[in-house]
Amino acid sequence: MDKAIIQQWVSPFYLNILHGNFASGIVAGDEQVQFNTNVRAALESITPKIASQLIDDGWREAITGSWFAGLKRFVECRDQIGEMLLASKFCYAGQGHAFGMACLADDASIDFLKQYLNTYLRRVDCYYDQSWAMPALMWIDQQRGTSHADEFLAPGGLWDHFTKDKISANDDAWTIERSKTHFWTNMEYCQDHFLS
Question: What is the pLDDT of residue 171?
Fold first, then answer.
């Protein structure tokens, strides 16, 4: 990818988008103010074509491209984001893909998230982006008044199957409560700072 594109659309954003650092308190003070300013400026000029180029590249580009495509509601990028989510080709990029699906919140986004969860919740050895995809589907349910997540969260269901060896008294990182809280913090931050 062209170095100028990376400098404009990736370098100022990806580390803050990664793990939702921008909303978790890791990014704070002047750094957070600068990030917010940079995001608002980027939202004024990013196009579906630029987002698509980013999504189709490495994990840093992809996490950034899907995140911006979600915020801008670039429906024309949805299938590309969904296919990248399902492929799980790069570590971390799925965080941005799940976020993008949650922002779009349409029927196709639901289908992509359900396909992902049906595949990767069965893969107990794969610590991928299940803790992003599951709350993304829950977020869409809340926005739309639907209940697509219920089939995965039922007692003894796929979420329990996936997390049973990952949760202990000393480690609650894979609990649905923690995953949901973290994802909600990201979505609400974006609503308050970039979409209002």
Answer: 80
Domain boundaries, the chain: 3-193
Cβ atoms 65, 42 nearer than 8 A: no
For residue 34, the one-letter residue type is Q
- Check the CA dihedral 64-66-72-74 and report its sign: positive
Between CA 146 and CA 110 the distance in angstroms is 10
| Cα separations in angstroms, 52 against 10, 30, 77, 86, 104 | 13, 30, 6, 16, 15
- Reading the block at residue 188, the tokens are 């609400």
Token duo for residue 147: 């209940």
- pLDDT surpassing 70 at residue 196: no
CB 17 within 8 A of CB 96: yes
Instruction: Kindly report the CATH number that applies to the domain delimited by 3-193.
Output: 1.25.10
